[in-house]
Predict the 3D structure of the following.
Amino acid sequence: MKPFLAALIATAAIAATPATAALPVGATAPDFATQASLAGKPFPFRLSQALKKGPVVLYFYPAAFTSGCTVEAHEFAEATDDFNRLGATVIGVSADKIETLNKFSVSECRNKFAVASATPKVIADYDVKLPVVAKSNRTSFVIAPDGKIIYAYSALSPAGHVSGTMNAVKAWEAAHPKR
């Protein structure tokens, strides 16, 4: 009974700790191109193009219209104007099909920011795959215009993703004032 209890406690401890972001701060963010949707309208998205405008908040989430992902989308929608004032672009990424994202971008993202469809390659390149299923975990990155990751945070709960990315963008902005 004792080994079983120890295994149970170890499993619970692992499940309770947040996952670590696969791509660490300082790594180069893999460029990718995919279909995205803003306000229900699909468009081609390329990370390298978005980075020309300033930092990118790239957040991966498991699936549109699930409870945690909906909460997270609402929180990012509320903060998008502040991110934009700082020159940052917000884009959510999941393995959902573009047809689903067209609806999610309107109802849950409230037409404030784009959501993109991640291919299995993008999920693998960012090493954000959930075990067993072909979906991403919940990981938020802030990527500087030079393509370097300046913030990475993984946690199953949506709490902390918006505040953490906002603080990272503010810190980057303070260190890189507009000329």
